[in-house]
């Protein structure tokens, strides 16, 4: 869902946004800050600058919904 959203938003191929392994690690680690996001394999400064805030917001929102 995250990658599909970013793919439509940027008009890029899904595999150019995040690899499957990166998505799996995002689900497992659930980074809550941009610094934590940088610890995810496949995410560097450029991707954090481009997608970081949105990715963290989505993860935080998903985490809050699942806590209820």
TrEMBL record:
InterPro entries, alphabetized: HRDC-like_sf, HRDC_dom, HRDC_dom_sf
Domain of life, source organism: Bacteria
A Pfam family annotated for this UniProt entry: HRDC
Domain HRDC: 1-68
Name used for this protein in its record: HRDC domain-containing protein
């Amino acid at each position: 869902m995250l990658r599909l959203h970013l793919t439509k938003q940027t008009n890029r191929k899904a595999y150019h946004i995040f690899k499957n392994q990166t998505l799996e690690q995002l689900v497992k680690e659930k980074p809550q800050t941009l610094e934590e996001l940088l610890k995810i394999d496949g995410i560097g400064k450029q991707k954090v600058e481009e997608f970081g805030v949105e990715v963290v917001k989505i993860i935080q929102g998903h985490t809050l919904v699942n806590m209820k």
